[in-house]
Amino acid sequence: MSNDSLRVMWFVPPAIAVAASWQMPANLRLESSMTQSSDEQYSSLCAGEVDAVVTSIDNVLHWNRRQGPQDFVVIAQIESTTPLQLVGSSALSAPADLVGANILVDAPENGFVIALRALLKEAGLGADDYRLTPVGGVRERFSALVAGEGDATLLGPPFDTMAVQRGLKKIATIQDVFANFPGQGLVVRKSVSHANQALKAWVRILNASLTTLPGDAARLTQALELLGMPAEAVTALVNTFPGTLTPSREGIELLIGQRALLGLPGADFTYEQIVDCSFLQ
């Protein structure tokens, strides 16, 4: 990687990254790639194939307990929250109905599934009451659910509405149960990131792009539509555009608490241990 290029991997282009592209100088090149799973993001960071990933902040809690570098930190929160709906068979009406269900997930031990497992526990279900089947990211989960390969999964816009249009049913909303649920974070390896001048420059541009809304809402909406995103996904991305890049303490403490509730590794971390705000200064 040259000093003027930055490699970032995400599931969907974040709205603030789209807004930041309007301010990119000619000598800074962003090389973005789409991922199909958080495990791919982890492996790519470990191998030095990417410099940063946009991912569920819970992944940092898990990755730092996996055998490996254990130096992952969140340096920015790039959306206020990640809208997530539990969607499943039309025969299901509530989380308690998922006893015996096959639930499709990205990974069974990290990411958005932890919020789902916490939601199910609060509904009275234990870990042995359902099965978690890894199939990949949101596109892969949507396709597998529609194909009848599972009973339920977590989906965000527009896939949740697309699933309902195909006869499936919205069962619960993560934000209705966990109001402080945080949006995705920009995650790096701390041991190598501070020498990355391109990363520092891009984060400065992201920070400067916080003023995009409300003045440039129409321009942002159009730019997201030009990327081929459905109207509902565009609306969700605009509505969750961050007001600050500083990772939410309340949100991260919620994620840590969910791991404690479930007895999972990573519940002993503190906000200060997994967040590095020095890039925002």
From TrEMBL:
Keywords: Signal. GO terms for cellular component: periplasmic space. It is found in: Periplasm. The keyword Signal applies. It comes from the Bacteria. Belongs to the bacterial solute-binding protein SsuA/TauA family. This is Nitrate ABC transporter substrate-binding protein. It comes from Pseudomonas jessenii.
